[in-house]
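A.,

Following up on our hallway conversation. Structure tokens first:
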């Protein structure tokens, strides 16, 4: 099967309709690529576990298609999950930690339920930066004690793979699945998307349920899609939305959420848009990367957008005090419900387990785990309460809301995941799309961020830019 022939959801559905391929054949194709490139060859190492029922599910969905028709655009589409998302089947959920290597969830996470209802095939679980990159300072993106190191398909061992949804990003880039589900607290979807030439959507907190996902911060956590095109990401996003009685944040989105974001796919979506650029977030770019972003801004203007450059966002996104406090609370609640086969039932026991297995578990330390354990776990500290209120005020009313209202912006423009922190603290959405490559082949991404529940507008802007530039190309794997 040619790699580019059936590379996107709409291409695949057309091929299904014309009986050129079946879901079973497509799943076999992805499994063959995983066999060839994940643990041998370039050793991308994105996959931690495969679903033993994937082929049976694919075959059943083919029969259902013949007898009843399709459920929707995800019918028969293989999708990978980040290994911190619960599945109530034969796969583990470990967050990359050897302490949770034997953790079988009792039921599907809400997002997994939605994917199965839509007819998606959960083909497996993907590796991640351990504990979603909230274990220690300085841990490499894509490393976990359970799964090892994920590599970037565009430069294995050369380019950063991004994190913490490293496996979901690298796997889709390497065509191990059609799309994947990552999670983000602060940059964990946007980073691997931009590093692997993908489209990543970090939704508004509450648009997608957080239940059944190993947490870091209940005020910032969200799941979201990684895909090769804006269209694919929009299709997956629509399948994930919905009110969940187990997650009160989804009540906020009940009137704003959509099940079909394809209405936002407007190739003229940049005409008349006003976009703001804060160059303080461009720090650390190489000369080539900066040139690519300047070219992207020119492309946006050529497509009809007004670029306000510079604007300034008055906020400090670097304080992680809220995450330090919320991690213990959320993780202890999750671990209290794991089976007795799991050797840890609290953050304190995770830390102790890691110390007892230090040679494998503590290659890079656990400074963030120990810092979180020092908190009360009750969220009663005045320092936490004040930090949480400050985050809301600085990131929302005095940050993104203020600059967007002042300049009447449709979105803010960032490079890669450099603006992830402020949007994460606000709980606001972002979307990353490919913006090109350096001369060495390193991918660079362009990110749009906006106010709460403006996913439709961000998708429209991203789609228009994507269709005008079409930067993305597949990696070459030997």
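Then the amino acids I'd put at each of the 478 positions:
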């Amino acid at each position: 099967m040619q790699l580019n022939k059936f590379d996107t959801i709409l291409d695949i559905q057309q091929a299904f309709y014309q009986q050129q391929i079946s879901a079973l054949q497509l799943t076999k194709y992805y499994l063959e690529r995983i066999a060839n490139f994940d643990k041998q060859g370039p050793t991308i190492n994105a996959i931690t576990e495969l679903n033993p029922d994937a082929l049976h599910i694919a075959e059943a969905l083919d029969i259902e298609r013949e007898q009843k028709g399709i459920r929707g655009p995800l019918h028969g589409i293989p999708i990978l999950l980040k290994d911190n998302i619960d599945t109530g089947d034969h796969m583990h959920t470990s967050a990359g930690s050897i302490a949770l290597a034997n953790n079988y969830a009792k039921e599907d996470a809400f997002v997994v339920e939605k994917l199965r209802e839509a007819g998606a095939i959960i083909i497996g679980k993907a590796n991640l930066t351990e504990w979603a990159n909230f274990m220690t300072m300085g841990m490499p993106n894509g490393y976990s004690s359970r799964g090892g190191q994920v590599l970037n398909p565009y430069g294995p061992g050369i380019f950063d793979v991004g994190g913490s949804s490293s496996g979901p990003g690298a796997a889709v880039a390497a065509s191990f699945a059609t799309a994947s589900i990552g999670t983000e607290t602060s940059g964990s979807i946007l980073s691997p998307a931009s590093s692997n030439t993908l489209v990543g959507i970090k939704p508004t907190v509450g648009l997608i349920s957080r239940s059944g996902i190993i947490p870091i911060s209940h005020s910032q956590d969200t799941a979201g899609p990684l895909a090769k095109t804006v269209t694919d990401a929009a299709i997956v996003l629509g399948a994930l939305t919905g009110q969940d009685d187990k997650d009160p944040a989804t009540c906020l989105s009940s009137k704003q959420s959509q099940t079909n974001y394809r209405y936002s796919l407007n190739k003229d979506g940049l005409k008349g848009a006003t976009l703001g650029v804060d160059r303080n977030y461009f720090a650390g770019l190489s000369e080539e990367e900066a040139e690519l972003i300047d070219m992207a801004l020119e492309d946006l203007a050529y497509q009809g957008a007004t670029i306000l450059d510079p604007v300034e966002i008055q906020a400090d996104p670097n304080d992680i005090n809220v995450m330090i406090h919320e991690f213990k609370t959320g993780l202890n609640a999750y671990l209290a419900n794991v089976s007795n086969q799991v050797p840890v039932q609290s953050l304190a026991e995770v830390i102790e387990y890691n110390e007892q297995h230090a040679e494998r578990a503590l290659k890079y330390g656990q400074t963030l785990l120990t810092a979180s354990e020092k908190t009360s776990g009750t969220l009663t500290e005045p320092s936490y309460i004040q930090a949480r209120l400050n985050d809301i005020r600085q990131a929302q009313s005095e940050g993104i809301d203020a600059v967007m209202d002042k300049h009447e912006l449709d979105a803010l423009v960032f490079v890669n995941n450099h603006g992830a922190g402020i949007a994460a603290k606000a709980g606001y959405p972002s979307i990353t799309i490919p913006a090109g490559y350096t001369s060495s082949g390193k991918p660079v991404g362009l990110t749009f961020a906006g106010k709460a529940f403006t996913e439709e507008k961000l998708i429209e802007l991203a789609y228009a830019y994507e269709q005008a530039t079409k930067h993305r190309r597949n990696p070459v794997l030997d």
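The longest helix spans residues 382-407. Curious whether your intuition agrees with the design.

B.
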